Model the fold of this input.
Amino acid sequence: MATTIATVQEFLAINNDLEGDYELVNDLDFSGQSFSGGKVLGVFKGSLNGNGKTLLNITITGWKVQSNTDAGKTVGSSSLFEGLMTSSVSNLRVKNLTLDMRDCDRQLLHAASLGYYNLAAVQCFHVENMHVRLASVASEQVVVSGISSVGLSTSANMCSIDGVHVTEEGPQNENVAVRAFSINMSGTVTNSYMRDVTGADRVTIDNGENRVSNCYIATENGKIRSSAWPQFTRCYYDATRGVQDTYNTPFAKTTAEMKQQATFEDWDFEDVWTIREGQDYPELRCRVGVFGPLTAAEYDALDLQAQEYDAEGLSAQQYDNWGKWYLVESKLP
Done:
């Protein structure tokens, strides 16, 4: 049976047993705390079911040595976990994550929400508003990964990265790359997306030897891939906002096309995706349907009256769930 996590202190106590099974029962707000050493948790070998809850306002300072060298370069990294090994993370949202690497003097910097992982599975994991802070130091290259940095035989399914912001103090480093996923060595990425990245020179969905399918990217300077990797199927990017080149031509769509279900051939819009036709990019049902009750403003937008609620005889939780799905499926602005 999984150990329940109800407080920030209990979450941090995962460090005492990094091979355990855990389940969140509350949203956790880390405001006012700062974690040094480039991590919050160590190398995790258990399972973490977020249960539709959110980790809020996490600030991580400093950096850890990911490896001594990478192609002859010294490496420093920062992430929520030091790493994931033979583990799983699911049904979790991380909102307002700050990785402050201004004091890192390594030649290659890796910043990621989860960290590197090997033989691990991540599903229904969502990052909203990830901020990476850099200084003009000796770093020759900066790689920001929405989900992970390096991996072996890993999988990511139904994941999203919505808002990645890179800021630099002093002269700009002209070699800052943001990738939704950087899972190397025969991993799989399916039914996932990245949107709205600022402060990067290059933005791609993936860089590695993965099999990537049913994914999209929508941001300035964005594209699907940076080289001739052949493993992309049914992937798309907003070429109106992104980069157009030979490698990415097969994946290019206009903004208008990216907001039409017909563009996304053989995507599952019954169980995995939903879309407000002509208004928004596709959205993952697990992201919309799992996380949190409706706000008062959302209830007002739905125009659901108390007498209707009572007439249906729904419990408060049933009402929340029904209201969320109605909000998603309707054509409200």
